Amino acid sequence: METVNLELFGKDVKVLKALSTAKNVSVTKAPVLISGEAGVGKRTLGLFIHQSSSRSEGPLINVDCSLDAKEVENQILGYRDQETGKFHKGALESANGGTVIFSNVDGLEDSFQKRLHSILNELSDYDIDLRIISTTTKNLSKLVGSGRFYRGLFTAISSNSINLTPLRERISDLQMISSHLVNICSEGQKVIGQDGMSKICSHYWTHNIQELKAIIEASVEKSEVDCLEANDILIGERRAVSMMAEDDSEGIRLMSLKDAEKLLIKKALVHTSENRTQAAKILGVSIRTLRNKINEYRQDGSAFFVNLR
């Protein structure tokens, strides 16, 4: 299991407050809701909470709730293989004594939200003891108010809430983390020059630390100089910064091309907090094409797209 490097969170006052809250709640078994933009470190903070708790020796299982609805249900509750008849345990049972992270919890289908709430309330009846950590890029309380997220489930998972501030709002952290990443990636052989740092600070980091790390790694690898200036920082090039890297554990299961297309569009919208312009850029399609696809999925009755603002 990876070890969390707290230096990559930064030293901003709001970040330090979030880390302090995480340390305090780690000694309890109470559920935690972590919110923030894509790539800001929500899942990593969840890992830190688990590692800092008395459950650190127990299992840690991550479920990406933005995946296909049936796949998510199977991962959480378990399923029986139709060919062999063997039952595969779900995360709730497999993580007994440990922690389950519901990444992108807002992606749960409406009907399953109510069912999951009921199941979580009954875990003790089956001698299942685990902590639930949830992450989201959305404001769940607003989704509850608009009827887009089940209030009972929200109450069950949000007794402790932590928000991680976007990297672009923490310039001093952006500079510090960039220098730290260059030092690590180059094994202390390279630094960032003034022009290079100015280019980094002026960029809108849509995927926050996740994106910054990918850019720094590529820049260090391709540069032949010891001091990285603006031309050496590979921002703006068509790079494959994976929007799925933060939360996926097993990747995409085999499915039809149509279902895969719908899933990728859903994930792009989840990771951009439903910003259609940014999602279209990530997917490499026009905003018109994305709009047409959303309307198509709405007509099919897909709950996520029906509820899309």
Strand portion: 5-15%
Low-confidence stretches: 238-252
What is the annotated CATH architecture of the largest domain?
A: 3-Layer(aba) Sandwich
- CATH homologous superfamily of the largest domain - what is it? P-loop containing nucleotide triphosphate hydrolases
Q: Tell me, briefly, the overall form.
A: globular
Tell me roughly what share of residues is in helical segments.
40-55%
User: What's the pLDDT, averaged over the residues?
Assistant: 88
Give the termini distance in whole angstroms. 38 Å
Secondary-structure element string: HEHEHEEHEHEHHEHEHHEHHHH
CATH class label of the largest domain: Alpha Beta
Number of helices: 14
Radius of gyration: 20 Å
Report the CATH topology name of the largest domain. Answer: Rossmann fold
What profile does the largest beta sheet have?
5 strands, parallel
With strands numbered from the N-terminus, the spatial order across the biggest sheet is 2-5-6-1-7
Instruction: Name the structural class.
Output: alpha/beta
Quaternary state reads: single chain
Describe the fold and architecture:
The chain has about 300 residues and is an alpha/beta fold. It is built from 14 helices and nine strands. The chain folds into three domains: about 5-165, Rossmann fold (3-Layer(aba) Sandwich), CATH 3.40.50; about 165-230, Helicase, Ruva Protein, domain 3; about 255-305, Arc Repressor Mutant, subunit A. Helix content is about 45%, strand content about 10%. The strands form three sheets. It has a five-stranded parallel β-sheet, with helices on both faces. Strands 3-4 form a two-stranded antiparallel sheet. Strands 8-9 form a two-stranded parallel sheet. Helix 8 (about 170-185) packs across helix 10 (about 210-220) and helix 11 crosses helix 12. The protein is globular.
